[in-house]
């Protein structure tokens, strides 16, 4: 199977990385397809099975870990497992497309380590922790407890930004989208060699 490329977007929850990833997926010339992760967390809002995630029970998830079916996996929050199934990357590469990931910082760095040549790892940075909290509250999808948990994790995640190939500061969304377009466009067309 011929290998495509891997484009990883990682960031603290609420940084706007999902918005950026969705925007990139609409750009046909980039030839990207979204890597649908598996998770044991509950379905949220309008999310759909096989579109946003493959929803598994914690037990099913653990069985797949044992069977070595994951490229990477993480217990992102307690009892909430998230991971990339090996079959997912194979499925997308078999279509001749590049894979785009919206995953947490450790997962993103793990993919970069496994496929250093094929991967562009981008970190999306929120303007500040306070702004992040405001965005999460506006989203109204999580309880205060869960928001506090995500904010606490965000501080630790911000420290990992220098380990990524590129950092996009998401202060102004339009500018962040444009920067993402250019970075990913150059990478998939081999215009610039990433380190
Ligand atoms: P959410 O619950 O908001 O959908 O996602 C929570 C966190 O899990 C986010 O940071 C998201 O990027 C991350 N995540 C989603 N899929 C994966 C995955 O396959 N692997 C890892 N390591 N993290 C993931």
- Share of helical residues: 40-55%
How does the helix and strand content classify structurally? alpha/beta
What string, H for helix and E for strand, traces the elements in order? EHEEEHEEHEHEHHEH
Calculate the terminal CA-CA distance, rounded to whole Å.
Answer: 25 Å
Strand arrangement, largest sheet? Answer: 2-7-1-8-9
CATH level 1 name:
Alpha Beta
* CATH fourth-tier homologous superfamily: P-loop containing nucleotide triphosphate hydrolases
- What shape does the CA trace take? globular
| CATH architecture field | 3-Layer(aba) Sandwich
Query: Hetero groups bound?
Result: guanosine-5'-monophosphate
**pLDDT average, as an integer?**
91
What is the radius of gyration?
16 Å
CATH topology: Rossmann fold
Unreliable stretches (pLDDT < 50, length at least 5) are: none
Number of domains: 1
Sheet having the most strands: 5 strands, parallel
According to DSSP, the number of beta strands is 9
Count every helix, treating DSSP H or I runs of 4 or more residues as helices.
7
Q: What percent strand?
A: 15-25%
Descriptive account of the structure:
With 195 residues, the chain is an alpha/beta fold. It has a single domain (6-188), classed as Rossmann fold (3-Layer(aba) Sandwich), CATH 3.40.50.300. Helices cover 41% and strands 23% of the residues. The protein is built from 7 helices and 9 strands, in the order βαβββαββαβαβααβα. The protein has a 5-stranded parallel beta sheet, sandwiched between helices. A hairpin with a 2-residue loop joins β5 and β6 (80-85). α5 (129-139) runs antiparallel to α6. The chain is globular and about 45 Å long. The model has no long low-confidence stretch (mean pLDDT 91). Guanosine-5'-monophosphate binds next to β5, β6 and α4.
């Amino acid at each position: 199977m011929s290998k495509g490329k891997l484009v990883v977007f990682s960031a603290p929850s609420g940084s706007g990385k999902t918005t950026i990833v969705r925007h990139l997926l609409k750009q046909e010339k980039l030839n990207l397809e979204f890597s649908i992760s598996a998770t044991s967390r509950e379905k949220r809002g309008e999310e759909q099975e096989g579109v946003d995630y493959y929803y598994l029970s914690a037990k099913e998830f653990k069985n797949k870990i044992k069977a070595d079916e994951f490229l990477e996996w993480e217990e992102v929050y307690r009892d909430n497992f998230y991971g990339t199934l090996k079959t997912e990357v194979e499925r997308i590469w078999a279509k001749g497309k590049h894979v785009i990931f919206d995953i947490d910082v450790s997962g993103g760095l793990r993919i970069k380590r496994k496929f250093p040549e094929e991967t562009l790892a981008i970190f999306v940075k929120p303007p500040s922790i306070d702004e992040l909290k405001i965005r999460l509250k506006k989203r109204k999808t999580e309880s205060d407890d869960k928001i506090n948990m995500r904010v606490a994790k965000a501080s630790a995640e911000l420290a990992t930004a220098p380990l990524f190939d590129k950092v996009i500061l998401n202060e102004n969304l339009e500018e962040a989208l444009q920067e993402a377009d250019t970075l990913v466009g150059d990478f998939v067309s081999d215009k610039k060699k990433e380190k």
